[in-house]
Specification:
heterodimer, A: 247 residues, alpha/beta, Rossmann fold, 9 helices, globular, B: 223 residues, mainly alpha, MetI-like fold, 8 helices
Chain lengths: 247, 223
């Protein structure tokens, strides 16, 4: 049994079919990076996995449970799936500490003190010990995103989905966030949509190249970068390498 | 004449108590119901949300005096006799709820969609997300609109005069009916009392608004 299994997932917006049958699996602690041009349904796929935007067709299984089954208690499953947003989506009215502890308190039913202790530990882990009492408006983009990661981590998820976590950041702030993600690799499964090829190359166990709503090719970074099988993969990686530089 | 005016003060203040009491009770009813209506309209499914829409339209479309008469005289004909104060609180509260619902709904709609998405991603139920994530932000944004509504309710308690609530206006009437020379001074004094109340209420809420703004909450920064 795989930890996560995505089976033939389809999703359309009106007449536009964004996902045309996506299938892949993930194991515990694995890191997979999804790359591809904008508008190929990478983010849609992530939203389909935790049912924030349920697929039209296909199945998603996590830990032996079918998430796509309407009978499943989706709120229970979502506790096992962390989500880190491109636009951070921190709760604007709460301090960094409360942003991280509120899920523990109101969803997991932990008492306030314990929840804040745990939140403190997670924020320390992402290097924000000094910022715990600050509100999102007082944090930089990189700090916000690290709070977002801490918020996901605190729920003890089996897997964290990252939706272009560094795309909304100033270039000099990207490194801090990527460092935190690198440090997490192996301890929790991560499925990351990103254009950061350095991260993909150095951290991913597997790279998935998506285009036009399908998976064109997937494999370990070395194979994908050096001996891509499909000409389209080669072309894309060539383009993106000149854009973002090789590492 | 000044002496007679001063002598009438205790009586006016007695009426003022009822004016303030009416205002507070009506606002409590209006706020609680208003929040429920706003949530129901923003998140509820069609039968509920269209029912709420009709409620809002009806209570915003009828003059307060007519609402008062319907509740006080109309219901009593159906055998549901209410005392004037209850009728006044109901009338003011139900109408205020219709207006407040608009204030809260506007505020709810201005909360970025990602707030709800993020709450759902943590496994938070919709109800909890509304309670802990959406409303705390929306209510802060509603303070200016609510402050306006407070002054409207406060001033409109005077219309409860018409169904026999012995509030400030009615007490004033008692004074000048006994001593018709006082009609202008008493009315001016009543006007001044309302004016001072409205001004201090707005000042108080301004303070509240600033206080909550200072805790680092700014909507729209993160979009």
């Amino acid at each position: 049994m795989h930890m996560l299994e995505v089976k033939d997932v389809h999703k359309s917006y009106g007449n536009l079919e964004v996902l045309k049958g996506i299938s892949f699996t993930m194991e515990k602690g694995e890191t997979k990076v999804i790359i591809g041009t904008s508008g190929t349904g990478k983010s849609t796929l992530l939203y389909c996995i935790n049912q924030l935007n349920p697929p039209d067709k296909g199945e998603v299984w996590l830990d032996g449970e079918e998430i796509t089954n309407p009978e499943t208690d989706i709120n229970k499953i979502r506790q096992k799936i962390g989500f880190v947003f491109q636009e951070f989506n921190l709760f604007n009215h709460l301090t960094a500490l409360r942003n991280v502890s509120i899920g523990l308190e109101k969803v997991k039913g932990m008492d306030k003190e314990k929840a804040q202790e745990r939140a403190m530990a997670e924020l320390t882990r992402v290097g924000l010990k000094e910022q715990v009492q600050q509100y999102p408006a007082q944090l930089s983009g990189g700090q916000k995103q690290r709070v977002g990661i801490a918020r996901a981590l605190a729920m003890d998820p089996m897997i964290i989905l990252f939706d272009e976590p560094t795309s909304a950041l100033d270039p000099e702030l990207i490194g801090d966030v990527l460092d935190v993600m690198k440090a997490l690799a192996g301890s929790v499964a991560m499925l990351v949509v990103t254009h950061e090829m350095g991260f993909a190359r150095n951290v991913a166990d597997e790279i998935i190249f998506m285009e036009g709503g399908i998976i064109v090719e997937s494999g370990p970074p070395k194979q994908m970068f050096q001996y891509p099988k499909k000409p389209r993969t080669k072309e894309f990686l060539g383009k993106i390498s000149t854009l973002y530089g090789k590492e | 004449m000044l002496e007679a005016l001063v002598d009438s003060l205790p009586q006016l203040l007695e009426g003022l108590k009822f004016t303030i009491g009416l205002t507070i009770l009506s606002l409590i009813l209006g706020s609680l119901l208003g929040i429920l209506l706003a949530v129901g309209r923003s998140y509820g499914k069609p039968p509920l949300s269209s029912f709420i829409l009709i409620y809002e339209k009806v209570f915003r479309g009828i003059p307060l005096l007519v609402i008062f008469f319907l509740i006080f005289f109309g219901l009593s004909q159906l055998g549901l006799g209410l005392d004037p104060i209850t009728a006044a609180v109901l009338g003011l509260g139900l109408r205020s709820a219709a207006y407040q619902a608009q204030i809260y709904r506007g505020a709810i709609n201005s909360i970025p969609k990602g707030q709800m998405t993020a709450a759902s991603s943590l496994g938070m139920s919709k109800l909890k997300s509304i309670r802990y994530i959406i409303l705390p932000q929306a209510l802060r944004l509603s303070i200016p609109g609510w402050s306006n509504e407070l002054t409207i309710v406060l001033k409109d308690t005077s219309i409860a005069f018409s169904i026999g609530v012995i509030e400030l206006m009615r007490q004033g009437r008692y004074v000048y009916v006994r001593n018709p020379d006082l009609i202008l001074p008493v009315l001016l004094l009543i006007a001044l009392i309302y004016f001072i109340l409205v001004i201090s209420a707005s000042k108080g809420l301004n303070y509240l608004e600033k206080k909550y703004k200072m805790s680092g909450f700014e909507v729209g920064v993160e979009r």
